[in-house]
Design goal:
Elements: H1 9-18, H2 25-32, E1 39-42, H3 49-59, E2 62-65, E3 72-76, H4 89-92, E4 96-98, H5 105-111, E5 120-123, H6 130-139, E6 144-148, H7 155-164, E7 170-173, H8 180-183, E8 188-194, H9 215-235, E9 236-246, H10 255-265, E10 269-272, E11 291-293, H11 295-298, E12 303-310, E13 329-330, H12 333-347, E14 355-360, E15 363-368, E16 382-383, E17 385-391, E18 394-397, H13 399-405, E19 413-416, H14 418-425, E20 439-445, E21 448-456, E22 459-461
Parallel strand pairs: 5-6, 5-8, 6-7, 8-9, 19-20
Antiparallel strand pairs: 1-3, 1-4, 2-3, 7-16, 9-12, 10-12, 11-12, 13-14, 14-15, 15-17, 17-18, 20-21, 21-22
C-alpha cells in the first residue's frame, strides 16, 4: 500500500467539485493509495493471444482480460517467481509489452468501429512506445506509422521497444508536436495525441506524481495541449479520426481542450461517443461521450479518452521549410532483385509487400511505401528498418531486420538451450556441443527468434547489438 501518498488539498477540492455524484471520494482516495495491478499486452506481431496464453499457463501466470483491449491482461505470478517480468524471454523477444491497462484504451478508441485499415497514422507523443507498438500490431505492420517524440533523450528507448517488438512500418521524428499541422497538413488517416499532462492519474505507480501539483501549472500545460490538438487537427485528413487522451483528471486538460477545438473549428469537428467501446464503459462516460476514468471505477490509473472526427478541411498554417538533402536513394530493380534473392537463399526470408528498398552508401533499408509521399516534406530521424550492409561478398544482415521479418521456422535457424540463450543475452559467443555450421544463422530459444549469429568454426558469433546486452537474473 502507498499509505504515505500525499494528495494536495487543492487537488482533492478539485476532484470533489468535478467527480460525478454517484462516485465516492473515500473510494477515490483509497484507490489512489493502492498500488496498480500489473498488466501486459500481447504483441500479435510475434504471437497469437491463444499461443501466449498457453506459454503463460506453463509458467503458472494467471491472466485476467482487460475489458477494453482484446490483447491486454492483468497478470499475477507465483510468489517464488523472482525473475523480473522484463527479464523473461517472452518480454526480451517482444512477445509482450508491460503496459498499464488504462493506457491501452486510447488505441482501442482509435480503432473503434473503423471500417477498413488506416494507411497513415501519427502518434504525436510516442515514447516509450507502448501505444506506438499497439498501433503497429493493430495495423499488422502495414501502411505507415509516424512516431514522434519531442524529448531527444527518449528516442533511444522508443526505438529499442519498436525494434524488440518487430515493428517495421514506423518512421521516427523528433519535433515539438505543434509542427505537424503546418509541415504535414491533411496527411494522416488517424492521429493519436496522448498529450503531455500533469499526470494526476499516475499516482498509483508514482507516489511522487503530485509533489509539484498546482493550478498554475495545469493552466500552463492546458495551453500547450490546445496548441497540440489544433496542430493534430490540421495534420488529419478530412474524414479522419483523432483520439485525444491524457493520464490526468482535471477538466482544464481534458474536456476543455476538446471543447477548445470544437469552438475554433465548429461543425468541422464532431465528438464521437465511446459508450459502447467496451462492457460497462458507461460507468466512466461524460455527457459528450468522452471517457473520464477515475481510478476506483475500473481499479486502474486515472485516464481521459476522447474520440473526434474531422468532417471538413481547414486552412493549415503556412510554414517555410528548410530541409537538407534526403540521404537515401531508391534502389534499382536489379539491386532489389539481388537483395531479395540473397535474403531468401541465405535466410529463407521474403521481402514483405508494400515495402521498398532504399540505399544510403552501403546501407540497405526497407521503407514502408506509404511513407514515400512524406519524403522531402519533413525530416525523419529513422524510417523503416535497416535490412543489411553491402560488402564485396554480398550482404551483412542486421539484427533489427531478423527481429521484424524472421519467424523462427526457417531452416537456417538454430535453437539455443536456456543456458546458451542466457549467454547470448549477456553478449557472449556460444559454442554448441558437437554441432557446426556455416555462415549466418537465425537464433531461437523456446521457439522464439532472439537474434542473428554467424558460425565461426565451432562457435556462433554473437550478433546482439551492444545496447541490448543484459546482465543478471535472466529468465
Amino acid at each position: 500500500m502507498h499509505q504515505n501518498i500525499k494528495l494536495p488539498e487543492g487537488f482533492l477540492t478539485q476532484i470533489q467539485e468535478i467527480m460525478p455524484s454517484h462516485l465516492s471520494m473515500d473510494e477515490f482516495t483509497d484507490a489512489c493509495k493502492r498500488p496498480l495491478r500489473r498488466s501486459i499486452r500481447v504483441n500479435t506481431l510475434k504471437i497469437s493471444v491463444e499461443d501466449f496464453k498457453t506459454r503463460a499457463s506453463a509458467y503458472g501466470w494467471e491472466l485476467t482480460p482487460v475489458p477494453w483491449c482484446g490483447t491486454g491482461f492483468w497478470i499475477e505470478r507465483k510468489e517464488d517467481d523472482k525473475t523480473p517480468l522484463g527479464n523473461t524471454i517472452e518480454h526480451m523477444s517482444g512477445l509482450f509489452y508491460i503496459q498499464e491497462a488504462s493506457s491501452m484504451m486510447p488505441v482501442t478508441a482509435l480503432l473503434f468501429e473503423q471500417q477498413g485499415e488506416f494507411d497513415t497514422v501519427l502518434d504525436v507523443a510516442a515514447a516509450p512506445g507502448s501505444k506506438t507498438t499497439q498501433i503497429a500490431a493493430a495495423m499488422n505492420n502495414n501502411g505507415a506509422l509516424v512516431a514522434n517524440e519531442f524529448s531527444a533523450s527518449r528516442i533511444k528507448g522508443l526505438y529499442s521497444n519498436i525494434q524488440r517488438c518487430g515493428v517495421r512500418n514506423v518512421a521516427l521524428t523528433n519535433f515539438d508536436g505543434r509542427v505537424f499541422g503546418g509541415w504535414l497538413p491533411e496527411q494522416f488517416d488517424a492521429i493519436l495525441l496522448d498529450a503531455p499532462c500533469s499526470g494526476e492519474g499516475t499516482i498509483r505507480k508514482d507516489p511522487d506524481a503530485m509533489n509539484n501539483w498546482s493550478k498554475e501549472s495545469i493552466n500552463e500545460i492546458s495551453e500547450t495541449q490546445k496548441d497540440l490538438i489544433e496542430s493534430a487537427f490540421h495534420a488529419l485528413k478530412p474524414g479522419g479520426v483523432l483520439v485525444y487522451s491524457t493520464c490526468t483528471l482535471n477538466l482544464e486538460e481534458n474536456q476543455q481542450v476538446c471543447h477548445h477545438l470544437k469552438d475554433k473549428f465548429g461543425d468541422k469537428v464532431e465528438f464521437e461517443r465511446l459508450d459502447n467501446l467496451f462492457t460497462n464503459a458507461q460507468a466512466a462516460i461524460t455527457k459528450e461521450g468522452f471517457l473520464h476514468i477515475y481510478p476506483q471505477i475500473f481499479d486502474s490509473e486515472g485516464f481521459f479518452v476522447a474520440r473526434l472526427r474531422k468532417l471538413a478541411s481547414a486552412e493549415a498554417p503556412v510554414v517555410k521549410k528548410r530541409l537538407g538533402k534526403f540521404p537515401f536513394e531508391k534502389a534499382s530493380r536489379k539491386v532489389v532483385t539481388d537483395v531479395a534473392s540473397q535474403l531468401n537463399s541465405i535466410l529463407e526470408i521474403s521481402l514483405p509487400d508494400s515495402t521498398a528498398i532504399w540505399l544510403r552508401d552501403k546501407e540497405v533499408w526497407l521503407f514502408p511505401e506509404s511513407l514515400e509521399s512524406m519524403i522531402g516534406e519533413i525530416r525523419f530521424d529513422r524510417m523503416g528498418i535497416k535490412l543489411a550492409e553491402a560488402h564485396k561478398k554480398g550482404y551483412r544482415w542486421q539484427h533489427e531486420a531478423i527481429m521484424a521479418l524472421a519467424t523462427g521456422d526457417e531452416k537456417n535457424s538454430f535453437e539455443f538451450s536456456i543456458d546458451q540463450a542466457r549467454e547470448w543475452f549477456m553478449g557472449r559467443d556460444v559454442r554448441p556441443e558437437d554441432v557446426t555450421g556455416k555462415g549466418e544463422v537465425i537464433i531461437t530459444h523456446s521457439g522464439v527468434v532472439i537474434g542473428l549469429g554467424k558460425w565461426v568454426g565451432n562457435r556462433i558469433k554473437n550478433g546482439l547489438p551492444r545496447e541490448l546486452v543484459r546482465d543478471g537474473n535472466l529468465f
